[in-house]
Structures are given as structure tokens and as C-alpha cells.
């Protein structure tokens, strides 16, 4: 079955991948900077401002459905910690003196024990959780215990002098664990006062500790910084310059074959290690190819009084370059591979910028800002950002006014994934196209919300 980009009145299938429109349509902006061969770290969350417990709480609820009570029991904390880390117990037997296998806390406690987070066969799941004990558990869950046990006692005592604890009442191991938690900022200074003798863990401290543990595992949010940061332009430019054309041989064997057979018009390739992991209700993703446009977009948001977390997610867009278009040439910004019929597949270096806004209202404002200052409506139009597109692309995983529903059709192998966006009613045709190449492939598909100009593009409209 052929999947092509055509007007809907033809009655034929209408599918579009997230391609570089600058390469498909000359009126779109082009990239002017060369790529660097060096790679950039994907897990770059570098705000100087410590994350609030409220932000951690929103993240835990959004990603895992975790809502902590005001003073969680030890069992509740263990359940939340194991769920956030995605830990499940193995079949290996573990003995417990106070937990039956039917207990709602048994699986979490067993998994944490098997992973070295719990070390005692007595859990006390129904008891109040002391704040010191919560920090000790979090330290082990954050994989910091080896660091902690390097502390000589004098060094540990000096570090915990900032805490309202009686050092003489603590074992050497407890002193070491608390000291490492202080020095690594697993325990933020705002919570030092929570560690008074016999103090119970609050929901605020529990959420913060779990969020911190996720950060040490690289499983919290990934971002370069905030739009308001003085150095965000340098970081954004460096991230783009350091990105490379993404390749995944196993994955591209499937999607390139579909492209060669004209089953899809294109796809984009991404590396999941760069995914922002932002809270869905506060975030959206904006795609483009021109780094100057990205820098100006940050400045535009600042001028409109909007701040947001910013993550650059490298992206490679692939489409068929027709031989009648002439020699594709050579560039650091794209690669080409000639196929059997004389055409080429072009792989173009692009990016997605993920934004997480401070409020839903700021997220809603984004649409009007783009339509006013980054949406091209006529040739030689003034008053727009550099490289503005006729059909800008940005989308949200939650509903927004004036956005339209489309579908993402996604194949993931390891850390890499290929995706093609389609009209909702054409999603099955995309899936069938990929499966005709490899019947064993799993194609994930889900609906999301995109801006109206890009939706019209999928419908074959020029503007």
C-alpha cells in the first residue's frame, strides 16, 4: 500500500513524517552553521536553583501516579520509591520477619532488598518513617553508599554538624550516610531542619528525596537550563553544533525500506537519551532545522515575559531526494544515500526544542506568539523570526485550545526511535506499511495535539 502526501479530495492516503520543510520547500529557512563531530551529554539539568518539593510532587504524580500522604509510613515510602525506579522483585527468595507475601508492601520491599537499598529483614512497613531513616534509604537508592563509606568519622561528623542531630547517638554508618547526603546535596539545605531527633518524614521531604534519587539515576528531567538564563544561548548553540546525524542500522533497515518502496513519505530519527522527560501538562515540543531560529525563539519568549525549561533534542529527518532535483552535494548538515531507482534518501540534521513552562497559561500563550512572529504567510514577509516556516511544527501531549489531534506512529529499538506523524484516520496505513517490511516489528501509536498550520500541511494545504 502506498502512503503519499496528497490533497484529501483524491481519496488516497495522506501521510507526512516530521521532515525538514526547509528541504522540501525552498521558502523555508536553511541552516547556516556546520556540525561539530563531538557529542554532547543528554542529561544536562543545570539550574542553579534547587528544585522545589512541589515540582518533584507534580513530576511523581504525572509520571507515576504517586501521591504521598502528609506523613508517609515507611511502607508507603518504599512503595513510591520502588515504583519511581521501576523496580520489580526477582523470583529469588527473600525472607522477611514482619511482611507476608500478601502485604501491599512486600514486592517493593523485596525489590529494594534485592537491589541493596534495604539491608534488614525487618521492614516495619506500617510504622512512621523517621526523617533520618528516609535519607539513609534514599542514599542507598541513589547508589551513593560506597562514597559514604569512604568517610572517616571525623570528616563525617564535620559534615553533619549542619544538621540538628546528636552525632553521639548515631552509629558510624549513619554518620557516613548522612554526611554523604549533605555533601552531594541529596539532602538539600532547606531540609536540614527536618532531621531533628525523632522527626517524622513529611510528604515534602519524601517527594524531594525520591526526586533526587531519580536525578542521580538520570531519570528526572533533562534540560540545558531556563530561557531566562544568561548563558542559555551559548548552551543551546553548543548543543546543536555538537549534535550529529543520528544512525541506527537495525531501525533504519525497516524505515528506509518503507521509504524506498514509497510506503511512507519520510520519518524522523531520535535518540531517547536526549528526551526531556518534562511534565506533559506543562510542556510542548517545537521542531526546526535552523539554530538561529532557535536562539531568536528563546529571545522572543523572554521578550513576552515567558520563562521555561529548555532542552534541545537532536533529530534526523529522512526523505526521498529526487534525482531530477540535481546533485544533492555534500554538507555537514545532511548525508545522502543513492537507492536503486537513482533517487536518494537524504538524512538531514535538525532539532526539537522541548519547553516546560511555569504554568499552563504560559503554555497556551505559545500558540499566539508563534502565529504572530514565527508563522510565514507570504513571501518576503517582514517582522518574523529568521527562518520562519509556512507551517511551523509544535505539539503537546495534552489537549490545548485551537490545536488539532494527529497520531504519532513510532518504532523503537534500543535507545533510538523512528516516528512518522499522520492524520489520525491514516495511522493504520502507516502501521501496515512498516509491518509489510517487517511483520515482527512493534509500532507504537498514540494521539497528540499539533498546531493548526501543521495539521493543514498534513491535509495537503500549502498554508
TrEMBL record:
Keywords: Signal. The keyword Signal applies. The keyword Signal applies. Residues 1-34 form the signal peptide. It comes from the Bacteria. This is SLH domain-containing protein.
